[in-house]
From TrEMBL, chain A:
Pfam families: ETF
Protein name per the record: Electron transfer flavoprotein subunit beta
CDD domains hit by this protein: ETF_beta
Domain of life: Bacteria
PROSITE patterns, alphabetized: ETF_BETA
Boundaries of every Electron transfer flavoprotein alpha/beta-subunit N-terminal domain copy: 23-215
Organism for this UniProt entry: Arenibacterium halophilum
Signal peptide segment: none
From TrEMBL, chain B:
UniProt similarity note: Belongs to the acyl-CoA dehydrogenase family.
Name of the featured protein: Acyl-CoA dehydrogenase
Domain Acyl-CoA oxidase/dehydrogenase middle: 121-220
UniProt entry tagged with the keyword Flavoprotein: yes
PANTHER family membership: ACYL-COA DEHYDROGENASE
Gene3D superfamilies linked: Acyl-CoA dehydrogenase/oxidase, N-terminal domain, Butyryl-CoA Dehydrogenase, subunit A, domain 2, Butyryl-CoA Dehydrogenase, subunit A, domain 3
Keyword presence, Chaperone: no
Taxonomic lineage of the native organism: Bacteria, Pseudomonadati, Pseudomonadota, Alphaproteobacteria, Rhodobacterales
Record keywords: FAD, Flavoprotein, Oxidoreductase
Domain Acyl-CoA dehydrogenase/oxidase N-terminal: 6-117
Source organism of the structure: Arenibacterium halophilum
Length: 252, 386
């Protein structure tokens, strides 16, 4: 089985995000970018499937600016076998919307014929949480979202999902799209031999036009604003005062 | 020199940095408090480093290692420099002097060291022989075909965990125009050899848990098979291999300075006094500007020196400049960082006071700042006959 893993280049989770002065979005000039952490989990899961003999090949794909090549190299250094970069924008500030990404991915799936698409449940920049679901609809494949456990058995997969109030286990027919949640696994570091090998692994470069997909934004960003600053806390001398204060505020 | 790092180099640095942040930082407070690295933590760091293929990555592919070039290895050590030396000792980087092993020494010392099965330490310094290496009194004398060693060494880092020690010892004396001059030989000495004792040294303010040990030799008998390199060839072995420790000090100083700087920058951007962030005050912001400028300068100087080694160019002066500048830069950066933190910077609730203490030794070990200045100026003046 071949596994396709879409990975997105996003602002590093350690960076303190700043909104651009004109409110049009987040400032991405000269900030550290990394692989979306949920996508890292998806790459790790694909590698584990390969190590367990359930997958033969892992193909990482990224859609965005040319610099997403670094993100793909990271996936290759972790253990993906080859990569496809689909250049869909020149400006780092241009985000490709989930529907456009899903359309391109659908074309890539057509070409590559993977038995499984493993994706992050969402990207930490826009938190859209839509691409996997849209891809599933476009392909007519089954989907298992928010996976915290994945067990592939022949032509079926058992996906344990983190839902409000607990875990739900579903059985889906393969080929399937599985989007992964935080607790599925802990991604590995790239090993030194794999880092050295990553450069020699194939990385194909394509454009959105190659797939005939129009990536023009359908959404208009009206305003981007910083979250309101949290009010400072207050130190209380003991539990009684704490309880009294909470009662005063009507919290308990 | 070519500017800019390759994708692989960026990835190597990012991987080591992530490793240090996740595997080293969480144990630092414990090591700082107890002055010890618990065995299970040491083993875990070592195991993970081996799994990642980073153990002994300064050794060539011919002995099954990654064979990183000097520049790549400088990036590894720079990122390691962010973390506790006591802990990252187990992110093993055996002394590259072990490449001088010959015959069955390869299987007894070199290979087990690069595989992480046996750990090494290097012993040169004595109470009466610091910068003046030739002043050593520790000696080995011929006796019925063996060598019999007597004397003691101190400040031997890592000897507490070492399975064997590479010891430099006087094996004779020549008369020269400038007076008597010691002949020096390097020996491989196994822990447990009769007459050889490793004991706790002094309590240092710098790098708690990275212990400096005392070695004692009392009629310790060694066969010729324990000589590393040639008899009386200690200086050649030293000159061929020991430049590396000075680059290590420089790179680690840069890595640590970057970590310290991040603390200072973050604090300046958050701490408020007189109704505004203290970073808004020029007294603070200009300090930050000077700090990052010096850190970048030291970083480039160090990487350029490492790159010269890779290019096969003379690098002795450049390495000395990097070691001198980076270690002195770290002193200024840690001092300024404490100033920005104010009183809290001195409290051991924050790591700032530790960075400040740790920085002090960098100007002393592996050649003091004065020795580095001597090397640099000699390199410039000697060709002019001065």
């Amino acid at each position: 089985m071949k596994v396709l893993v879409p990975v997105k280049r996003v602002i590093d989770y350690n960076v303190k995000v700043r909104v651009k002065a004109d409110g049009s979005g987040v400032d991405l000039a000269n900030v550290k970018m990394s692989m979306n952490p949920f996508d890292e989990i998806a790459v790790e899961e694909a590698i584990r499937l390969k190590e367990a003999g359930k997958a033969e090949e892992i193909v990482a794909v990224s859609i965005g600016v040319k610099q997403a090549q670094e993100t793909l190299r990271t996936a290759l250094a972790m253990g993906a076998d080859r990569a496809i970069l689909v250049i869909a924008a020149d400006d780092v500030h241009q985000d490709i919307e989930p529907l456009a990404v899903a359309k391109i991915l659908a074309k890539v799936v057509e070409e590559e014929q993977p038995g499984l698409v493993l994706a992050g449940k969402q990207a930490i920049d826009n938190d859209m949480n839509a691409t996997g679901q849209m891809l599933s609809a476009l392909l007519g494949w089954s989907q298992g979202t928010f996976a915290s456990e994945l067990d592939i058995d022949g032509d079926h997969a058992k996906v344990t999902r983190e839902v409000d109030g607990g875990l739900q286990t579903i059985k889906v027919k393969m080929p399937a799209i599985v989007t992964v949640d935080l607790r599925l696994n802990e991604p590995r570091y790239a090993s030194l031999p794999n880092i050295m090998k990553a450069k020699k692994k194939p990385l194909d470069e394509k454009t959105a036009a190659d797939y005939g997909v129009d990536v023009t934004p359908r959404l208009e960003i009206v305003k981007t604003a910083e979250p309101e600053a949290r009010a400072a806390g207050e130190m209380v001398p003991d539990v009684d005062t704490l309880v009294a204060k909470l009662k005063e505020k009507g919290v308990v | 020199m070519q500017y800019g790092l390759t994708d692989e180099q960026e990835m190597i640095a990012a991987t080591v940095r992530a490793f240090v942040e996740k595997e080293i930082y969480p144990h630092e407070a414990l090591v700082e408090r107890t002055g010890e690295v618990p065995q299970e933590i040491a083993e875990e760091i070592k195991r993970k480093t081996i799994e990642l293929g980073f153990y002994a990555c300064n050794f060539p592919e011919s002995v099954g290692c990654a064979g990183l070039c000097h520049l790549d290895f400088a990036l590894v050590e720079r990122e390691l420099g962010r973390g506790s030396m006591a802990l990252n000792h187990f992110f093993g980087r055996p002394q590259n002097i072990l490449m001088a092993c010959e015959g069955d020494q390869v299987d007894r010392y070199l290979m087990p060291a690069v595989r992480g099965e046996r750990m090494d330490a290097l012993a040169m310094t004595e109470p009466g022989a610091g910068s003046d290496v030739r002043g050593m009194t520790c000696s080995a004398k011929r006796d019925r075909g063996d060598w019999v060693m007597n004397g003691s060494k101190h400040f031997i880092s890592g000897a507490d965990h070492a399975d064997f020690v590479i010891v430099f010892i006087a094996t004779g004396e020549d008369m020269t125009d400038k007076g008597p001059k010691k002949r020096i030989t390097a020996f491989l000495v196994d822990r447990g050899t009769p007459g050889f004792t490793i004991r706790d040294g002094y309590r240092s303010v710098s790098h708690r848990g990275y212990k400096n040990m005392i070695l004692e030799f009392d009629d310790c008998r060694l066969p010729d098979a324990q000589v590393l390199g040639a008899v009386d060839g200690g200086f050649e072995v030293m000159n061929t291999w020991l430049y590396a420790t000075r680059i290590t000090v420089a790179t680690m100083s840069v890595g640590r300075a970057r970590r310290v700087f991040d603390h200072a920058l973050g604090y300046a951007a958050e701490r408020e006094q007189f109704g505004q962030k203290i970073g808004k005050f020029q007294g603070v912001s200009f300090q930050l500007a000077d700090m990052i400028t010096e850190i970048d300068a030291a970083d480039l100087l160090t990487l350029a020196a490492a790159n010269r080694l890779d290019q096969g160019l003379p690098a002795n002066r450049e390495i000395a400049s990097a070691k001198l500048y980076a270690s002195e830069m770290l002193a200024r950066v840690t001092d300024a960082a404490i100033q920005i933190h104010g009183g809290m910077g001195l409290m051991d609730d924050f790591p700032m006071e530790r960075f400040w203490r740790d920085a002090r030794v960098e100007r002393i070990w592996d050649g003091t700042s004065e020795i580095q200045r001597h090397i640099i100026s000699r390199d410039l003046l000697r060709p002019l006959g001065a």
